[in-house]
Design goal:
Helices cover 26% and strands 21% of the residues. The chain is α+β, with helices and mostly antiparallel strands. The two termini are 31 Å apart. It binds zinc ion.
Amino acid sequence: MIELPEATTIARQMSAELKGKCIADGNRGNAPHKFAFYSRPPEEYAAIFEGKTMGEATVNGWLILASVEPAHTLILGCGGERIIYHHSATSLPKKRQLLLHFTDDTYLTVTVQGWGAALLLHQSEVAGHRFVNLAKPSPLSDAFTPDYFLGLFTGLAKDDRASVKYFMISEPGVLGVGNGCLQDILWQARLHPRRPAVGLTSAEKLRLYTAIREVLQEMVEGGGRDSDRDLCNCPGSYKRILHSKVVGQPCLRCSAPIEKATYLGGAIYVCPSCQAATGLE
Ligand SMILES: [Zn+2]
């Protein structure tokens, strides 16, 4: 799943590899997919793409916003996707949900796995789109200060039962953090995902803040997590601490065996010792 580290990596690579390339033709791919989200009919994608030039790509949470100059934005990401740059037609996937063919006979393909977005919006439509959130600060930006993060907790009612996991990935949510990045962040912060957010001490909140910044930064510097691939179809070099293959293996910090559970619609991995479930109802 593309989350902030992978989106950041792919956006950088798109800017470096694709900026200035002219689109000979582009389309919504050759394989309809139930959970591929588009914003216009196929013929409009084709008409808009033809003859346009790729501009800079930026990031909004786990979305990649690639400028299609002069007036459009291609928005990719939002779930499970492969976004791959091809130097020739020989490596094109047989089934794809978006294809851009550039005038130098290189290509960009998007393949949706699970669900994903390939929105083509006029620039004036971007800010208002339901997938886009320009109001929230990126957790790696200067605006994501300790004060900002601690302020998110003040919005919780005293009897709010929402867990740390819900707080992090849903409401209020940290932009670009999903159930993937969450695992190592909570391990680093030594917090159990089921802990009620309202019950965290000040020290725990600050530990969580620091873990968000440090773990995401490390993931970005590693070109994404080792579970995901970049624009060149290479896995990221950030080695995840908690994932399915370490269940039962010793925790890197305290040697207790890592446990797995299902919670809020996804797997959670925890060290039962470091991430003690104190305060659980
Ligand atoms: Zn541990």
